[in-house]
User: What shape does this take?
Amino acid sequence: MRLSWRRPAPPHATGTGGRIFGLDLMRATAILLVVAGHTAAMISLWAGQAGAPLVSYGAYYGIELFFVLSGYLIGGLLARQVARTAPGHYASAWRIFMARRWLRTLPLYYVWLGILLVLWVPVLPMVTRRELAHTLPAYLAMVQNLFWPIEARNFFDVSWSLAVEEWFYLLFASLLFVGLGRLRRATMPALAVLFVAVPVACRAMWPAPPTPGDHLVPYWLDSIGIGVWVALLEARAPRLFKAACWAAPLGALMLAEAMFGGSLARFGASTPLRQVIEVDYVAVAMALMLPALARWRDARGPLAWGVRQIAALSYAIYLVHLSVLVFVGAKRTAWQLSPEQSGLLSLAATLLIALALSYTIERPIMRRRPDDRRPSQASPASMAAPNPDPAMASAAPDGA
Assistant: This one.
């Protein structure tokens, strides 16, 4: 695999459709961690054995990586949108931004939700079906874990993190474009601080029990907010952002120490204190690696090609993989499959379904999203200003 650490260039200069390889690598790593963690946990459950904590915990690190990367990409998109939107056009800019976000994420979400309702519900336990009967409207409105835990377990559990991201997009963008009229340049930094401080305060004052309650939306917004901080650093202080590439080893060391050294447990003996600190400790470690990865512009070879393919399919894979695992687990006795065979079948089915959904629904819709660079929105000053975040492009399917 040939690598290139050139200074970030315009999207057309990379020869890879404007994608940044370092960010694709982050996204591919995140989805592999999530799938590996969930698959290992399910195989251990089927075999009646205790799972390896480090492997199972990888799913948590993968989701955190998704959140931080999403915050960085969304923060960069909003910084560019603000720079090229003239005063008086903020409402239009907000509508275009939200339309692009919703068309990126919601069609595939609702299609898979419909597939689950048709194919999966008939094999669910009766208790889960009863729970689902009165919580289905919450899934349709993306409020299944807004202030309460998901009730219908083993149905569409991974949707909790999608709800976190959707509410972040809506709340952050709405407050940003409303605040621009008064706070101007201070609006985005103020919101980035707010969206970290409030979740930390929620975890400190109302600790969630060790149940699905720790997946409530307000408790997880700060990981995305930390990603926005990195985007702001790139937009407002590009030289400092370039210098921050040297912080990558520190971020990697923090992650390794958290995973293998038990530093998080030493932050405090009480579970609530660890709960307050742990999310942001891991998110900050990942954020420290972002500047270097964002400047890893290009890579060639079969391995790099594989990384890009996994990154491009990551959203579809994330949506379907856990439901497929649970479905195969429910059928494995009737199909006379061993735990290992069930895991391999789940992985193969996940990849095939993700490919079908991505090529028939996700990508065609993305190509038809509204343009967020309409000339009528840009003022002469903003058009003449340099790009506030040159290293960011549509680096992953959740990018532009």
